[in-house]
Structure formats: C-alpha cells, structure tokens
Amino acid sequence: MARVKRPGHNRSLPGRLRIVAGKWRSRLLQIIDEPELRPTPERIRETLFNWLSPATAGARCLDLFAGTGVLGIEALSRGAAHVVFIEKSATLAGAIRKNLTELKATNAEVYQKDALDYLSKADPQPFDIVFLDPPFEADLLAGLCKALCENGWLTRNAIVYLEQRKDQAKPALPDGWAITHEKVAGKVSYSLVNTGTRI
Length: 199
Description:
25% of the residues lie in helices and 27% in strands. With 199 residues, it is an alpha/beta fold. The protein has one domain: Rossmann fold, CATH 3.40.50.150. The strands form two sheets. A seven-stranded mixed beta sheet has the order 5-4-3-6-7-9-8, with helices on both faces.
C-alpha cells in the first residue's frame, strides 16, 4: 500500500478525496493520511463506475477492506440502495462513519472487523456488488472470491470488483465466474468479474 496520492495524480486535494459523480458529486471526503492507506485513485473510480453504471442504482454493495470507504461512498452517491463497509482499523472505520454522517448517508453500515473473519463468521447477506481491494502483498483475492461464492454472500448475478498490482498473477476464480472488464492504470490492474449473467 502507498500513501494518499498527492496533487498531479488526480484532482483531489492532500488529505481529501473527491467524489466523482452522483448526488454528492465534487464533495470532498476527509482522509486520514496513514502510511499504509492506498485509496483507489479518481481516474480508476471514474472508469469503474462507468462500467458499473447499469448495475449501481438500487444495488446492495459490500466494501471489504474499505480503507477510506471511497468505493462504497461513490456507490451510494450513484444510487446504491445500501452499502456495508468492513474495515479492520478502528481509526479508519471511525473516519468512514464521520464522512457518512457529514454526507447524511443513512443507508450504510460500518463494521470494524477483519474481512476474512466477517466472510466466514457473519450471517451471510447477499450483495449485488462487492468491492475487493485488499493489501496487495497479502495475495488474498482468490480466497476472498471463494469465500464470497461458497458462503452465500452473493446474489445470483452479482458483480465483483478486483484490484491488484499489474505484475501479480490473476487469481483463480470460482467456476462460472468471468472477467467482463479489465484495465491497467500505472502499477494497478483492475477488473470486473460477473458471477452470472453479464452486464
């Protein structure tokens, strides 16, 4: 993970991230500048949510390894019905709650939990969209996809977002899953995986 990106990488300000579009378009989120925090850059979020545009409105979303919470908040801004944020750090979970309060977002829940523990121990609630952006060095994507698939966390045609280093091998995906969109930005490879009917 890297520090919060500085001006020149995108249009957000130091210590802040800009919401790209939707009802909170151009609102700035206060971001804690922690050494291991790696927010998804603005240009990737813009592309990602262009891909997701047919599916976001009314969707139930899960933002695992939420960090800044910017992916889930961007989904809420674009009409997602509900977002659950999972973040292990108490400091970061608190910052997400603060940003949601300032946005007056009532259709969201934040849990300070380990993502893998949450998927294995919590009561499964099927989600339409899941954002997976774990620490790159941990190599967790294959195991997370398996847990989502086998533990009842996905609706029939759920979409899963994957973010990893571009030099990492693609994770093994459960049977029937297919990459529908894929792109590289700098050192990051990101993709959408459909678990059923393609969008």
